Amino acid sequence: MKISKVLIVVFVVISSFVLYQSLEAFSSGITGRTKKNGDGCTCHGSTPTAGVSAIISGPASVKAGDTATYRLKLFGGPLVGGGCNIAAQTGTLMTSFLESQLQLISGELTHTSPKLSVGGDTIRWAFKYKAPNAPNTKDSIFANGNSVNMLAGSSGDAWNFANNFVINITPATSIEKNSEIVKEFKLSQNYPNPFNPATKINFSVLKSGFVTLRVFDNLGRERASLVNENLNSGSYSYVLDANAYGLASGMYYYKLETDGFSDTKKMILAK
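Given the sequence above, the corresponding structure tokens read:
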């Protein structure tokens, strides 16, 4: 009887140690597991699982030296909890105030602890990316996500790579402020239109505030971030060079947004 009790105690201690070790190994995060430099999260399975999807989203172009916010979305698999590894080819990755469960290790991002799926089928992480000072080049963000059941060991867990997210690094050109006095918010039609490869966009800001001017393709995907900063009241011009943003022929929409005002106009690039 005493021997049985001893065996039970030993079994509980060993099981607790294994569970502790498993969760600790998971919670500390891991790097070097993206398509940039690794074979994936093989501790959660030897090969990627088609039923698990990791998707990177964010601006398709960033000015040289500028910073933008991106997100990694994970779904599929057991997904009681999830972890990730994110890497950039040449740009700089940073944590975001929007996300408390990411840490930076050796230039790559990884989870600080398992992020639980609460009442849904998706886990998301937000992070920041700073473009290198190399205009007219391309950069890539790599990632993978592991979908886990939060049980001891890795049995039943799964993972997959994200598709590499390619970013166009555009020239860090500044907008030009005109001298005229403005009486209203206004977004003018670009000129010339159609254009190839450059066109001028004029807009007016009635009161100081944060202003964005972005370009979208015909499917609603953001293709360029032209203005993303605080501007004083005034009239402004921006010369869009389609080649700098890697834009192909087609129809595009440019949208001006600031506090209390939003307007969108159509333009056509004809190469």
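Confidence is low (pLDDT under 50) at residues 4-26. Try to locate this feature in the token string yourself.
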